[in-house]
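Section 5.1 Outputs to date
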Amino acid sequence: MICAASVLSMEADNMEEARRLVNEGDYWGARKILEKEVASNPKLANNAQFNYLTGVCEFEDGDYTAAAKSLAAAKAKGYGAANLYLGRLAFLDYDFEKATGLYDEFRKAREKSGQPAGETVEEFERQLVSAENALGRVEQIVVIDSIAVPAEGFFKSYKLPRSAGRLLSPDEMPLERHRGGAVVAFVNEGNDFMMWGEPDSVGNVRLVESMCLTDGKWSEPAATPSVLNEGGYADYPFMMPDGVTLYYASDGNDSMGGYDIFVVTRDAQTGEYLQPQNVGMPFNSPHDDFMMAIDEENGIGWWATDRNLLGDKITIYVYKVNELRKNYSPEDADVLAKARLTDYRATQNPDDKEEYERLLAHLDNLESVSEEKKADFYFPKGDGHYYTSMDDFSKPAARNAMKKYLLSKESLEKEEVKLAALRKRYSVNHADNVKQQIIQFEKEVEQRRSEIIKLRSEVYRLEKGGK
């Protein structure tokens, strides 16, 4: 029989292992240990460190309600570190005053224990200051629609005229070798300029651009300057028809939390980008905001956000673009609600209801005449033509092979998302276990790519010469 002292020692070791995993960013691994420990010893649920570690894991998993309960329990038992994540929860809820107080409590607890506050709280405080400043210049816009869509392929719900350019899924990108790391690519109306976000050699996502050459081939992508990311990732580009105004998303030094939308002007003569500007609230928030696209032809803009906490779905807002910016007064009693878009209909003028309905009807018609929106997929036939649905294949065997090909590509995309997340985690904390996971995932991804190449060839073989 194992003595009580040995059990306690083992429990302490497991708690220390869970704490180490949390510090390394392996929240899934930490949570598994914690769940196993509390199952064998229910009294552990009253332990302050257990409450804190559980709360952090719940927070990082996006379960904010459960996290608030666990972290509050840890704080009530005197666990000062809980204030950092409680402050983060207040920040995400736009309660900036409460967040400030909780960050201060965290700092005092660290000072009392003789430990430095650390870079994390400094970054959180920087984001807090950015958000508070943005709250003083919230732009007055009219949001005419709010659409909840799956996060994967969300941009396919944008209804843009040809004059605005196109948003391509990785499968549609002409440069096959660069499809793996992309989420979405922008191509202009002239079909001679393309831009997208792509991981660099160390896994940091950077904007790259390519030009269509005179022979119809696309040039190897060139990286954009570091001014477009400023210490973070840069992705979700959209270039205006003027060819010099770029909207994109970055989680760098000027972000108020997660991805923020930025606008930057490109010098038409030198091609150099000037200093990017954060577009502010209500477009940006303490959450992720990205993929702004402007339809100049109809005066309509689009952007996506995960601020509404819809699980695996995100929200797309459709709004009327202002010719000139006008901000709400910081003294407006409803400015916070307008900033977070608590009810997007509150931005509308009831007298203009018919105009909003006309714009939405126009967008519906725009989608119905767009050939690109009807495609189930894009699989090159050659000579610039594509298979876009299973009905395009004449051979049943080719259709079956195509189904296997699409399933394999979907699996690869999910693996690449996980690999990108691991690389992002490793860039913050160079943990050996994360490094090993990256190496393993890279092998699996490479194997999957080889399988996809074989499946792709099999589709062509069966369609053109098979039974």
